[in-house]
Amino acid sequence: MTLDRIDFDLLRLLRKNARLPNKDLAERAGIAPSTALERIRRLREAGVLQGFHAEIAPEAIGIGLQALISVRLAQHSRALLDSFHAHLRGLPEVLAFYHVAGADDFLVHVGVGDSAHLRDFALAAFTERPEVSRIETRLIFEFQRNAELPRHCT
Amino acid sequence: MTLDRIDFDLLRLLRKNARLPNKDLAERAGIAPSTALERIRRLREAGVLQGFHAEIAPEAIGIGLQALISVRLAQHSRALLDSFHAHLRGLPEVLAFYHVAGADDFLVHVGVGDSAHLRDFALAAFTERPEVSRIETRLIFEFQRNAELPRHCT
DNA sequence: GCTGAAAGTGAGAGGAG
DNA sequence: CTCCTCTCACTTTCAGC
Prior knowledge:
By secondary structure, chain A is an alpha+beta fold. Chain A has 2 domains: 5-45, Winged helix-like DNA-binding domain superfamily/Winged helix DNA-binding domain (Arc Repressor Mutant, subunit A, Orthogonal Bundle), CATH 1.10.10.10; 58-140, Alpha-Beta Plaits, CATH 3.30.70. Helix content of chain A is 38%, strand content 29%. Chain A contains 5 helices and 5 strands. Chain A has helices at 5-16, 22-29, 33-45, 78-89, 115-127, and strands at residues 49-56, 65-73, 94-100, 106-112, 132-145. In chain A, β3 (94-100) and β4 form a beta hairpin. Chains A and B meet through α1, β1, β3, β4 and β5 of A and α1, β1, β3, β4 and β5 of B. The structure holds a DNA duplex.
């Protein structure tokens, strides 16, 4: 699938505000509302638009503390990897995770209530797991996401 | 501001699908559409709902490679921190960044076209910067975000 | 603070260019 | 592929509960 300038405009607008009405979307992209509707339907079907998510203030949902936990697995077998992967996906404290190349295999972004919660969680969800060889926890002072599209998406 | 069960329901629904029509939102939360509208307006005004963002397939916008770059600053002065912070916010390759406690000061999630782009970018945006003392780059095999709310948000 | 009706507006489908 | 029109459904406001 090949995207043109109008597709990038629609993506850029939806990336900044996913609840923008179709009418406004069309106007700002310089096309008719029905055309915008059709384009967005196609972008979704092609898997370019994967979803729309609300961003929620962490403190409002009881997240007073965020941390990054580096995890090194005991071995690099496929079975162990899959098992740990599935485990990560089931933890509500996990906000996001990265599977990376390097000495540590995973980097896990977690959100917890307080430091006691963090200690208990790190112990139960990582240290006590058979797949895990070693973890390292870093507190997050600030986390920010970027809603811009790359420069070449003109 | 104190949230009740219905607020959490609305947040949970919008977190999973930010484009869900208000009517459906109300129905699934068990309230009238006008009530849902009012509640969401208040959640936005209170800063609980901070925004709505589309999730876009990286490859579709020319991101063939993602990496995590650990950055250590030369000193920990406020001026240097602010300067580097502002710099990060202006880079389109930066998808997100963490300001963390520990030996490294920042962890930057970047998306680039290919390995040549990554090398050039790491050099120009980090290594050559006066604020930066040292960087370390790790390739990302997989990145996943969690759209669930914490367990206590019933 | 929630409900339900009423007015205004946008979404979405079908057909023409 | 894009636009226009038309219908239908949704959003949004407001008075009443």
